[in-house]
Amino acid sequence: MADSEVIKQQVSEILTTLMPHVRPEQLTGNADLSQVGLQSVDAPRLIMQLESQFGISFGMEDMQPQNFRSLDAIAALLAQKKAG
How far apart are CA 34 and CA 44, in angstroms? Predict the structure, then answer.
């Protein structure tokens, strides 16, 4: 499995923990997470879990809605942060 697929799988697991009513198959690559149930009140927990799991820190410049809109967007941001 490619690194990006591993990242997506890990993010999917975090998202289904935050949103237990969502089935993993609903979290396709570019599905709008707000449409499947991610709410703004979930954002701080999502960000904290991503930072913890991936050992990165998000800066203010990363806190753009488009960076957290979909599984693909989150995975791309994480890959960018991990690459330094």
Answer: 15
CB 22 within 8 A of CB 15: yes
- Tell me the chain's radius of gyration from C-alpha atoms: 12
pTM for the full model? 0.90
Q: Which residue in 33, 42, 41, 45 sits closest to 69, CA to CA?
A: 33
Each residue's pLDDT tens digit, 37-62: 888 888 999 999 999 999 999 999 99
| SS3 label, residue 71 | helix
Neighbouring C-beta atoms of residue 10, cutoff 10 Å = 16
Please, are residues 74 and 50 in contact by the beta-carbon 8 Å criterion?
yes
